[in-house]
# Entry
Amino acid sequence: MKLNRIQILIFNKLSNEKGLEVDSYVKKYSVEYVGVQRDSLQDLTEEEGDAWINKSYIISLSGEDCDES
# Structure
């Protein structure tokens, strides 16, 4: 199943925070967030989107940033 409307809005916000277009954001961070390479937003499943959004939320609470390496 593909991403739902709310997930798409969240991905647009997350990518804007990184200064990237949404497909570039997904391509750059997919392995880190869902463990598999995805090249565009359309490639993500709803379950992968949920996992990604959940991990992003947990990281935001901890004050860490996946981009700090």
